[in-house]
Amino acid sequence: MTTPVLGAHTFGFAWDCVAEEAIAQLADAGYRTVQLMATPPHFDPWRQDAARTRRIGALIERYGLSLLALDLASSDINLASPSPHVVDFAVASYEATIERAAELGARWICVGSGRRHALLAKANDRLMVSFREAFARIHDKATHAGIPIILENHPQGLLASAADIVRFLADEGYADMPVIYDVANAIAIGEDPVEGLRTLWPRLGIVHLSDSPKGQWRHDPIGSGEIDFAAIGAELKQRSYGGRIVLEILSERPLQDIGEGAAALQRQGLAFTRDS
Fold first, then answer.
1. Phi/psi at 238 (nearest 5 deg)?
2. Each residue of 91-112: b (16+ CB within 10 Å) or e?
3. Which Pfam families is this protein grouped with (predicted)?
4. DSSP secondary-structure letter at 259?
5. 69-82 as b/e, with b when 16 or more CB fall inside 10 Å?
6. Which of 45, 102, 166, 173 is the most buried if burial means most Cβ atoms within 10 Å?
7. Residue 208, SS3?
8. pLDDT of residue 276
9. Is 272 domain-assigned?
10. What is the domain range of residue 190?
11. Is there a domain that residue 275 lies in?
């Protein structure tokens, strides 16, 4: 039977320690698959730093790690802004992050869908024009760099739901692009994560797991919210999902909560390996 690989995200460490320290903590705890949050003070994607690249590269080699993807913080950028200057900055930010991803040997660059207008729904069709053009520019850069895009659902984005993502990728001709499905992001918009997994199958490259109360946007420790991980695990098992599961938990003790979350998931029947 195909078994998914468990990994951990450095997002929970982003304000407390630099990327090298977070990666080392996760590696020492036995994780061999890592996703990196690219935001200062944790990791600055806008700044090329050969010495830092060597340090992180040495960690990856020493521990035999797989660096899945680099993520930009959604609070820093907006690919769907009505302002061309804002969009240009966002595209340039992704281009810099693609360069850092190539330097570090990451498998993917994670891209979100820009921010929809929360109060004026009729503006979103026009914002989609900005996003579509910006996304194409990023896709061109990523293709030339040899770092494929992986698209993530986001509750504030134009592509918030699984159906939105499927429709966009089909309409724009991105037939082979994989997707990160974040179950907490899905819960934030009232989407059933199990239905979302079914909708996105077989595009799933990474499944992000954290907990949240229904209707809220949180990335809390596993077991502290209302997400049905047993149902999610059953769906992944039924479909023989062999991709990556990444714990993306924001808390005051991210390493401990990631470890306890992994144990809680196993108790609920979600099987995985930590081999990269």
1. -60, -35
2. bebbbbbbbbbebbebbbbbbb
3. AP_endonuc_2 (PF01261)
4. H
5. bbbbbbeebbbbbe
6. 45
7. strand
8. 54
9. no
10. 5-267
11. no
Per-residue pLDDT tens for 70-120? 999 998 999 999 999 999 999 999 999 999 999 999 999 999 999 999 888
CATH number at residue 68: 3.20.20.150
**Mind spelling out the 3-state secondary structure of 30-89?**
CCCEEEEEECCCCCCCCCCCHHHHHHHHHHHHHHCCEEEEEEECCCCCCCCCCCHHHHHH
Kindly report the number of other CB atoms within 10 A of residue 145's CB atom: 14
What Rg, from alpha-carbon coordinates, does the chain have? 18
Bridge partner list, 72: 38
Question: In residues, how long is the chain?
Answer: 276
Instruction: Tell whether 276 is covered by a domain.
Output: no
Q: Is 195 helix (H, G, I), strand (E, B) or coil?
A: helix
Distance CA 164, CA 77 (A): 20
How many domains does the chain fold into?
1
In a domain, 237, yes or no: yes
User: How does residue 152 score in pLDDT terms, banded at 50, 70 and 90?
Assistant: very high
* Residues linked to residue 267 through DSSP beta bridges, in sequence order: none
For 173-218, write each residue's pLDDT tens digit. 998 999 999 999 999 999 999 999 999 999 999 999 999 999 999 9
